[in-house]
Amino acid sequence: LAVLLSSLGLGTTLTFASSHWLLAWMGLEINTLAIIPLMAQHHHPRAVEATTKYFLTQATAAAMIMFASTTNAWITGEWDMNNMSNPLASTMIIIALALKIGLAPMHFWMPEVLQGLDLLTGLILSTWQKLAPFALIVQTAQAVDPMLLTALGVASTLVGGWGGLNQTQLRKILAYSSIAHMGWMIIILQYASQLTLLA
């Protein structure tokens, strides 16, 4: 357990500290690989199902990030995060990161995954696991059309608010609350980036 939690910290720190897409991607994947055993530690069918859904979603997002960053490196000649001059690659990376953190309309996995987990693992999934992808969104936000991020933020806020209204299950309420809060953070990032962490 200590090794897995240390790996979570290592992956997030690696992503925070990197200005190179390959290292950032490695940090995200260390995070994903560290939390999967935590999710599946209770050998319950719902936990295994949640773990499988989470893995497939994160693997898809990771493949998109790698493809987009490789495309950007091919066009610009460098892997630096601050040189995201290709609009297609920038948009693909933002969409992949939105999938990773569960922004609407790429949020469908999140309520289902949280429903199958115990509360402690769900807490880690809905807080700590979002730090690294959100940091990458903050770093690449200036390279993307602001309307895309605003649309993702507004959609997440609406979906999170409406989705949680008729829920009777605590974990799904937490999932929709997390989606809505991430939406607010994305909206604020566009207009007052220094206030984002207060959202």
What is the topology?
Elements (H helix, E strand, L loop, with lengths): L1 H16 L3 H19 L5 H32 L10 H15 L7 H7 L3 H8 L1 H13 L5 H18 L6 H22 L8
Helix pairs in contact: 1-2, 1-7, 2-3, 2-7, 3-4, 3-5, 4-7, 5-9, 8-9
Model description:
- There is one protein chain.
- The chain has 199 residues and is mainly α.
- The protein has one domain (2-198).
- Helices cover 75% and strands 0% of the residues.
- It is built from nine helices and no strands.
- The longest helix is centred in the N-terminal third of the chain and has 32 residues, at 45-76.
Helix content: over 70%
- State mean pLDDT (0 to 100 scale): 92
Biggest sheet character = none
SS content category = mainly alpha
Low-pLDDT runs of 5+ residues are: none
Q: Count every beta strand, where a strand is a DSSP E run of 2 or more residues.
A: 0
Q: How much of the residues is beta strand, in percent?
A: under 5%
Write down the overall geometry.
globular
CA-atom Rg in angstroms:
16 Å
Number of domains: 1
Measure the end-to-end span: 31 Å
> Count of DSSP helices?
9
Compressed to H and E, one letter per element, the order equals: HHHHHHHHH
